[in-house]
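hi!! sorry for the late reply, been swamped w classes. u asked for the two structures so here they r. pasted raw, havent cleaned anything up. first the sequence of the first protein and right below it the tokens
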Amino acid sequence: MAFQEIKVPDNATVAQKGLAWVDSRFPLSKLFKEHMSEYYAPKNFNFWYFFGSLAIVVLVIQIVTGIFLVMNYKPDAMKAFDSVEYIMREVPWGWLIRYMHSTGASMFFVVVYLHMFRGLIYGSYQKPRELIWIFGCTIFLLLMAEAFLGYLLPWGQMSYWGAQVIINLFAAIPLIGPDLALWLRGDYVVGDATLNRFFSLHVIALPLVLVGLVAAHIIALHEVGSNNPDGIDIKNNLDASGKPVDGIPFHPYYSVHDIMGLGVFLMIFAAIVFFAPEMGGYFLEANNFIPADPLQTPSHIAPVWYFTPFYSMLRATTTPFLIPLWILCAVILGMVIKTNKDIRVKAVCAGILAALAVGFYVFDAKFWGVVIMGGTVVILFFLPWLDKSPVRSIRYRPDFHKYIYGIFIVSFVILGYLGIKPPSPLFEKISQICTIYYLAFFFAMPWWSKMGTFKPVPDRVTFEAH
């Protein structure tokens, strides 16, 4: 196709002429219309729909503050801690940039956890939004990797020993474990080589992938349309002009809506940065203000709060705990074998059951702890196929479903709290109960999600101003 310049009237403003010049060479106005002014979103969005846009805002904050931190940070085991102190004490406004970045890391996970919770209760992972959910779970997984890599960079006591513990977990993997841990460290101990490769991945590789995945997440969302608290596809009810009767343009309605949420978020964010950047040791631990010392282990090593639910599951996995866990798996797989008519599914389940029985005797509890810790994240990817509910939203599900979700959230919070505390026999038992519930929530979902009496779903979305 031959190039065509977009024509504008002679009396057009400079801005209009400039926009026409750009549109002739890049579809700027077209993209704005498709994803903002002419993208129709359900009119019944509520409080829970703030967190998607807030996640993008926090990502921008992290990237911008990270750029400024890199200008003065030294990825050297002998200079890293001092360079962070130099940023805090000598660089103009360096303390603010550092605290914005450290607070932003925790707020990122606050926002993402709430965003995922909204998707969970409103069934935003169900058909046709499976790919959106998979992109989102991949973003979550990469965020965990990004946070872990960045946690080592200050080269404080908790950074050093936390990285030592997490990397050593990979050594529990049969056959390749020791070599994999050595490859991750780049040396036989956590040292300068580890710091350099973690710095490279944290600053360059993972942020690029994250930005690409966020773009793919948004494109996939706008392709199939947003879900809503009623779980109704607004594209199924169009007016004479082909526009959803229950939809409104994202811009200006939800752009202004999100600005309000952003204002509240920034006030909370600023209050933490200026008045409680350490957040009582949950955002920044006291041990991380002490230079890394390979010869002195802290009395209690625990990851940052957003990793602690999974860390708690790791610690809860002991040899006695594996017995009831194996029984739970056997019951669930037995139910699949009994109820499913597909011979191939029966064979796969029988194979998994046999492999688990053999693995229980061959591998130790540390290995299974790593499997459970990783599996509790990976299982999220399969949620669109585990949930057999005929309706999306929690609003129209049986009441006992709400209790199941409520106990799941409480269990996850308890696991997070116990992961911060020093281990004890009582805490271990509580962690094991919560871990079993977490796993049962997902593995038993194909059955409990379709049980009970479901409420009738309305044909049109219900609108409640807020």
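now the second protein. again sequence first, tokens right under
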Amino acid sequence: MTDAAWAPVLPARERAAVLDRLAASARPHRVPHSVRPDLAGGGAGLALAYHWLDRALPGRGYGALAEGYLAAALRGYARLGASPGLFGGAAGLAFAVWSLSHDEAALHRHVVDEVTARARRAADGPYSSRAVDVVAGLTGAGAYLLCRRDDPAAAEALRTVLTALTRTRFPDRPDPGMAHGTAGPLALLALALAAEATVPGQREAAVRLAAALAAGRADDAWGPDWPAPATGRPLRASWCRGGPGIARALWLAGTALDDAELRGLAVRALRAALRRPPERRRVDGDPGLCHGVTGLLHITSRFAHDTGDPGLTTAAARLAAGPLPSGGGPGFLDGAAGVTLALLGAATDAAPGWDRALLLA
């Protein structure tokens, strides 16, 4: 593992080519007065993308676009309202506000209050994957609260979320994946442990979830993988459900628990995903962070940074330099905003703090 500053995986010539490509596709334009506020496909995700573009390529108007989309998203939130979820709700917008160093006290307070109430209900109720997942549930909102734990109210809300996750009776055969499965809660429990944000039973819960995920794998000719629970069929090599996202959760757990075996399994699982042919891993035709090739790219970049493994650096560089499929719209999860952020992570030395929303670091 390494504590070094973030470094691009791409060589200098390829870095310049990627940045030129991004600059050509991200031309200054007029921002709508009001846009959808969500992080997944709305203004919050675009604000993040233009903010990181401005850090990489200052003086080209990207900072004004980031501020414009954030303001438009806040106006959309005032008009439409939102649940407290991370990708479709207020927590994602609050994450963008925080990332751009703004302060929207009423929005923050809404997230804290709503998430606290939901966590208390979840702690006493039956298991529901939607109630605890990353996309709409407690885990995703907890990712935002972990960023804001310097605020006493947010720190207390985070403890309430962690307590609920610690007490949750997850299925004996856990659902795989970061977006809706048990890998997401494991990643949050592990990141909170590493940040010394803890509640009673949290470490033991992380050990149980990690062991269940490790036991649920099914090795194939390339290495460790996780099949769909209902059918046993292979899943995409994606962040949302497949082996790369699960591998990252196991790496974070192995780091927080000081478990070298878990970290080793995580690296083997990612290498296996990278070795599988495109028709097997089924992400190469999709651009998105969620279930596409840039999700695999960014997870590989994170592993390359943490392990210092030159083979993983080369694999990430190959993914970043190759032709990427088009489509997916402008969004963070499936479209251009997420693609831009992943490429910036590969091509610049700006630490990709935006990926806390994916619970990758």
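hope this helps!! also noticed smth abt the second:
The radius of gyration is 19 Å.
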